[in-house]
């Protein structure tokens, strides 16, 4: 008799954005004449940059000629893309990352979800709260937690991000093995300083732990003092992997491309205490269960590293950051304390009340969709996330409606 | 101290196609003037159909306009593609598969590798020998096997495919829970009759087991008596999932699109014996760890279901099948007994000698790359797989060289 993976039964019944969709759909069905503005799910809205579309067209034409047709590519990604990333995202910032330490994938969600497979079943997890749900859920599915008791899974060290610590958690007092960090943060939009990240690198070294650093939003950093990569921190090459994505940098949420950096110097241990390079394990995982990213998509991603590409993606990000500033200023003016929005496309609003209730208020009274903080964890209660991904006009209309609704 | 998943240390050190690449590269380096013809790895060579390229271009243009831009799509795939599959691949063959039982993915390798996650750690596996290595390796990584002893992992019931059974295994005499089947087969090219598949469905029902049916090569079936889908067998909707891919149907190995069919009627059990629909578990896995296939790629896949698309993919497959017939006829004429090539793009040649030695002979004396059967499992020894994926000219040249070398 075939049996299920019973860890799935520990998962909470539904997914945050599905819950939101249900409430929004119910509202729309009941109020068909009132147009909704979505500042909830962090999905880009503006056109794919011209350089990326030009590259997609050209690659499509290549597939039409036998001489330039592309079948299976390297599972790890084409050298043209890995080299461009190593040069522009790392060497240019003084980080020593080799091309073959970069694994191209079809999304950071996949990478964040799959990476835990190469570690043992009993690693001790440290995960922020609030947090992108994928870090937690994929470890629950793999059986690394106990039951969900009162909104938290047993066996996880939660790193609380609160107004008291400026939403940047300090290292824990207990030893942990696998640490998820995300800066600029989703959902809070908070960023970490070099000193704060250095403390995490030192903690990982002291505990022989590994940091999984999600920097999907690094392109939004405008403060020159804030590191874009964990590898700007001395010693991070020994203890950290880094997740990056083209989704928010270049509007690729529907086009799909991302990458994971695995330095050859990061190790984990077997039961006898022997060190094993993580790079070899991940390479085996990646080449056994994945067959590379679509060739035209890889060409589109590489195009953002040209001069025209940098200009076009820069303009795209400036657009969203200008939206973010409008949102943060408006919410601050309404009396809420906020973080994010300056070096991130998200504004984390301390609402001072139940977050689903605040969500319902914005939906019902302003026809604006935000994301209730409670959906991201216990410490998200009392907050909502507002996303800057929209047109200027929609953001301005949404803010006017919110101001009227909350007056 | 962070520990590795020690199951990875059970894996054999290298991957079949990496071994082949090493030998080929060494030969090419030593003999730069002798051009190689590759009939080894099953990768398509002919241009992507015009309808698919037209769809890629049109979708790229859509991404350039705010009104038609696409961000995150449904993780399960767009309705336009799921509906086309349900209609043309299933309803048209009398199989009752609903659109929402179809999960679009970026490749069958991913689906075949990931599906095991939703089952318990101790399911009893039945896996063919010879076999596509991903079925075995992903279960080794997940800890469902013991050590590799003499070329076989402990804890797997191997389904031997030999000249004696025409390379189609009968159901085993012991109970198993999770059964991998692939027809038309990779690597043998053998096909299964309705009666043979019906025996497997009956076995699965009797044992409360699940069949994972890989039909990535169904488009190559020309014999009207051979089923294209497991769902042509009565009762299969209760016990089988089906893997399909656009890779070999429409030349998508570099473009990347596939799908997995999970009928809502297939169940697995918890430890208390309660039945759980697999559809809900897979939906949770898929939506938690995957973010959908690139929008232009989904549009390209949908294009093959138009009249022009059917004509173009039909012509592509006819081209490869005509190559296959040439290969099978030539190898038969040389005195080898062969299967495959009539309803599949692979020809499985019984060489009567060590398969790596035969590989080396073809490489060194004919400059032709095939795949040694031993790389697919113990029962592959004594055989090689020759692939029909190439131009007519290359196939004809390769066959002339092989005939001269083996005379």
Automatic annotation (TrEMBL), chains A, B:
Report which superkingdom the organism of origin falls in.
Bacteria
| Record's catalysed reaction(s) | (2S,6S)-2,6-diaminopimelate + 2-oxoglutarate = (S)-2,3,4,5-tetrahydrodipicolinate + L-glutamate + H2O + H(+)
Task: Write the record's keywords in alphabetical order, separated by commas.
Answer: Aminotransferase, Pyridoxal phosphate, Transferase
Q: Which cofactor does it need?
A: pyridoxal 5'-phosphate
Residue ranges annotated for the Aminotransferase class I/classII large domain, each copy included: 35-402
Residue spans making up a coiled coil are: none
**According to its UniProt record, in which pathway does this protein act?**
Amino-acid biosynthesis; L-lysine biosynthesis via DAP pathway; LL-2,6-diaminopimelate from (S)-tetrahydrodipicolinate (aminotransferase route): step 1/1
The biological process GO terms on file are: lysine biosynthetic process via diaminopimelate
Q: What is this protein called?
A: LL-diaminopimelate aminotransferase
Q: Which organism is it from?
A: Oleiharenicola lentus
